[in-house]
């Protein structure tokens, strides 16, 4: 269980480009909800100069997808650049638990499209108990 983390990096076949998601969450105990912010990042090495041509990206949080347009140039040897960001509030189960899937997708070209996915388990939100005697 956690309130932050990241997905594994997804690489192009020769490893010139990679993407991943870093996420964080805040919890509303009374509403039994968490608000998740997911940021899709890209990196490049000396073999890949990344420039977009209206290449879209997408972030999916718990089955709901947001799409984004051109993210700008990245260049060579870029360790980390934000591509897109999506914030969504999700409801927990009645017992306070919640697991969900995060997916990030980026079109690099007609040839290369990368997808990173991770399943996260959020911290359980404590629920009120009824005590009887």
Short description:
By secondary structure, the chain is mainly beta. 0% of the residues lie in helices and 51% in strands. It has strands at 4-6, 10-11, 17-28, 33-44, 57-61, 64-68, 81-91, 99-107, 113-121.
Detailed description of the structure:
It is a single chain. With 133 residues, the chain is mainly beta. The protein contains no helices and 9 strands. The two termini are 33 Å apart.
SSE layout:
Layout: E1 4-6, E2 10-11, E3 17-28, E4 33-44, E5 57-61, E6 64-68, E7 81-91, E8 99-107, E9 113-121
Antiparallel strand pairs: 1-3, 2-3, 3-4, 4-7, 5-6, 5-8, 8-9
Essential attributes:
single chain; 133 residues; 4-stranded antiparallel β-sheet; 0% helix
Percent strand: over 45%
Average pLDDT, to the nearest integer?
A: 89
Rounded to the nearest angstrom, the radius of gyration is: 18 Å
What helical percentage do the residues reach?
A: under 10%
Number of helices: 0
Low-confidence stretches at least 5 residues in length (pLDDT < 50)?
A: none
Give the distance, in angstroms, between the N- and C-terminal Cα atoms. Answer: 33 Å
Class computed from helices, strands and strand pairing: mainly beta
Give the overall shape.
elongated
How many DSSP-defined strands?
A: 9
Helix-strand sequence: EEEEEEEEE
Query: Tell me about the biggest sheet?
Result: 5 strands, antiparallel
